[in-house]
Design a protein that fits this description.
Length: 254
């Protein structure tokens, strides 16, 4: 099974600090064995320059969003082909912040994933429940529906090329984190939901945990059998912390 540590920079950094951050990540990784896949997701304006900076290193560049159409009159949007042309290899889709602030639905996210797969870019599909849903005991229903709706219409070969990130919304940027047991329980549920769709291929789909994952709590999370790495927000903005998370994932998995 692959292990992936991905950093979602969200709407942070500028031209200078983006270059410094990725430089620090590349330098820090030199001391580690290359067993874990490392992904950074800078904001759109810095994707091309960061992709050039990591060319020839083990770091892969991801976008944080895309549009499903190939081209067209969609002011402000960015297509899969554009991303591909500058060396982007993966794309986060369905992040809870995009669902919450930009009204993205599971079906819309499903269309983006189909476009990404057709264009040869790996979707990192985010799912996860909000606090009230967990408190009401509905978290498995919510995540199960997110998986079903976003993957509707996709065949097993397509689904098997997706990376899934479980990001409980109540843990994102809050300092609260799911316990290793809570995260493992949900990851096992996601794995079984995927198994219903793709059979044994489900065991090859990396499931990342996201939500206040930091060097001081990551070892417990990465130690769980169905947690195959992390999607990191705040701690990815500091090269030392991010590289430490890669080290912890390497130690836990390899
Ligand atoms: P934090 O690590 O800042 O909680 O963010 C997680 C996240 O949303 C990654 O996509």
């Amino acid at each position: 099974m692959r292990t992936i540590v991905a950093g979602n920079w969200k709407m942070h950094t500028d031209r200078t600090t983006a270059a410094e951050l990725v430089n620090g990540v590349v330098k820090g990784l030199e001391a580690l064995p290359a067993q874990v896949e490392v992904v950074v997701a800078p904001p759109f304006p810095f994707l091309a320059s960061v992709a050039e900076q990591v060319n020839g290193t083990r770091v892969l560049v991801a976008a944080q969003n895309c549009h499903e159409a190939a081209t067209g009159a969609y002011t402000g949007e960015v297509s899969v082909g554009m991303l591909k042309s500058i060396g982007v290899g993966a794309c986060i889709v369905g992040h809870s912040e995009r669902r919450q602030y930009f009204g993205e639905t599971d079906t819309a996210v499903g269309r983006k994933m189909a476009a990404l797969l057709a264009g040869g870019i790996t979707p990192i599909y985010c799912c996860g429940e909000v606090k009230a849903e967990r408190e009401a005991g509905r978290h498995f229903d919510v995540v199960g529906r997110q998986i079903d709706e976003a993957f509707a219409g996709m065949d097993a070969e397509m689904i098997a090329r997706v990376v899934v990130a479980y990001e409980p919304v109540w843990a994102i940027g809050t300092g609260l984190t799911a316990s290793p047991e809570q995260a493992q329980e949900m990851h096992a549920f996601i794995r079984s939901a995927l198994r219903n769709k793709v059979g044994a291929l489900a065991d090859t789909i990396p499931l990342l945990y996201g939500g206040s994952c930091k060097p001081d709590n990551a070892a417990g999370l990465f130690g769980q059998p169905d947690i195959n790495g992390g999607l990191i927000g705040g701690a990815a903005l500091d090269a030392t912390s991010f590289v430490e998370l890669v080290r912890l994932a390497t130690a836990a998995k390899h």
